[in-house]
């Protein structure tokens, strides 16, 4: 986020302070409430599949102090996406380790998409019923960015690159040998991902996925209001 603001300033373009403030508040809310929810979803899914590790280590919690990662937090403010301390998961408790790890992995991005859906419902609710004024516009801007951040987190985590959730989902479809080779070169994959992201080469495909998810969430969130004729 601030990375985009810095580029805007360096380009000599004006910065909308109210919009930046709305984005900062949205990111703070995501760090305090949604990143812990993401990790809780992992731990909860693992528990349902027989792994009590998260509960034993007191990580099955929504307390942000248990989940905040300093570097991941800085990335949230700089780029609009980041990470929390991962919940410990022990696949030895699973009946089918690769399949169950994939289920645990997908629980995190799903929690972000559900959080985005809740935010989108709030946005359409304010558009339908709230009076038109500066405060309403600010709140709509804040919740819209909150939706965007959640969708970005979901899309980013679904990338099949270790240690992101997508790598564990992909692992369910690989043989043991292929999976071992995959994780042996995980540092290479991570470096390649960062190079592609900072060069902008990866922004197009990632944006396409985010746009598709955002359109779907917006359609679902707006549907009840359209059915009752208030939008």
Give a quick set of tags describing it:
10 helices, globular, mainly alpha, 231 residues
Q: How would you describe the overall organization of this protein?
A:
This protein has 231 residues and is mainly alpha-helical. The protein has helices spanning 2-10, 17-48, 53-56, 70-79, 97-129, 134-157, 165-171, 176-184, 186-199, 203-227. The longest helix is centred in the middle third of the chain and has 33 residues, at 97-129. It starts with a helix and ends with a helix. The model has no long low-confidence stretch (mean pLDDT 90).
Give the number of helices.
10
Helix content: over 70%
Approximate strand percentage: under 5%
Structural class: mainly alpha
Give the overall shape.
globular
Topology, number of strands: 0
Radius of gyration: 19 Å
Low-confidence stretches: none
What letter string, H or E per element, gives the SSE order?
Answer: HHHHHHHHHH
Mean pLDDT, as a whole number?
Answer: 90
Distance separating the two termini = 31 Å
Describe the biggest sheet? none
Write the layout of secondary structure elements.
Layout: H1 2-10, H2 17-48, H3 53-56, H4 70-79, H5 97-129, H6 134-157, H7 165-171, H8 176-184, H9 186-199, H10 203-227
Helix pairs in contact: 2-5, 2-6, 5-6, 5-7, 5-10, 6-10
